[in-house]
Amino acid sequence: MTTDFAGKPHIQFNRNAQTRRQYVLSEFFCFSEKTLSLRRIHKNLTYFFRLILTVPCILCSDFMERGCCENMDIVMEKERFRHELKYLIGYAEYFSLRSRLSHVMDRDENVGGDGRYLIRSIYFDNYRDKALREKVNGIARREKFRIRYYNDDLSFILLEKKRKVNNLCQKLDARITEEECRRLLAGDTAWMRDSDRELVRELYRKRKDEQLRPRVLVSYIREPYVYLAGNVRVTFDFDIRSTLFHPHFLEGSPADVPVAEDAGRMVMEVKYDEYLPDIILDLIQAVGCRQSAFSKYGACRRFG
Fold first, then answer.
1. 62 or 126, which is more confident?
2. pLDDT (tens digit, 9 = 90+) per residue, 157-183?
């Protein structure tokens, strides 16, 4: 037991449940002895009510230890979020960071010989531009749907939902076939209603409720690095391009244009789970990078 700034004892919650219950009961029965002194009645009444308010906390803690924590672990595992930091950097910072990070991080196993790959994402939004407005207005809880494929390989296509809650991000995905993708983009969604993939059914409902439609194709080159501790992923994204008003998405060579205001700038993203190892943080801070709220989707929707 420790004391607070007024010299009054309070309970530390680092004991196990049984010890905490015994402690509260003993302190409760000692209350009658302490009230023998009239001069301490006020102090003891204050302490008594403090103990009364402590009992629900202890009972709740005991309940958590008896199994509720297991259920919470399952929920957190299912609803796992990651930290995501974004930086707008120039080529000088890029070469410096790449040189530093390559000594402590590994290349992503999916990259080609040049250590990069092409990403194309088809984003969904409604006629009110809900996803775009939520991003621009900085809404704390928001989400957006997209179709993503790599290196123009249509044999592997993912339907993804990206959620943002304050400064945490979560990405859910489900694999779809090229035929399903083309049917979805053409507005044929009947097959989605009874799909065995939950994310596909969710997009079907939100197409009906929120009138989500494919709006823009975003393309860029990514150079990724990974670090096992903390599940860290550092990526450099450059040559960001948009199809603007072009309505056709699954083409061999889409008609897109660059959207960067400064051709010498690129986006660095740092993603990790519970913690960012100091070795990675120190390397990033050594270059003097500053965080940014840059959005590729927002940049590609500037013109329409």
1. 126
2. 999 999 999 889 999 999 999 999 999
Place of tokens 């948009």: 242
Task: Write the CB contacts of 158 (distance below 8 Å, at least 6 apart in sequence).
Answer: 147, 148, 149, 173, 174, 175, 176
Question: In sequence order, which residues have a C-beta less than 8 Å from that of residue 83 and are 6 or more positions away?
Answer: 167, 168, 169, 270, 271, 272, 273, 276
Mean pLDDT across 251-271: 85
Nearest to 158 by CA among 169, 144, 172: 172
Burial class (CB in 10 A: 0-12, 13-18, 19+), 281: middle
Helix, strand or coil, per DSSP, at residue 238: strand
Spatial CB neighbours of 115, under 8 Å, sequence gap ≥ 6: 107, 223
User: What residues form DSSP beta bridges with 120?
Assistant: 149, 219
Range with the largest mean pLDDT of 7-11, 59-63, 75-79, 108-112: 108-112
3-state class (DSSP) for residue 123 = strand
Cβ atoms of 138 and 105 closer than 8 Å:
no
List the structure tokens of 129: 């531009």
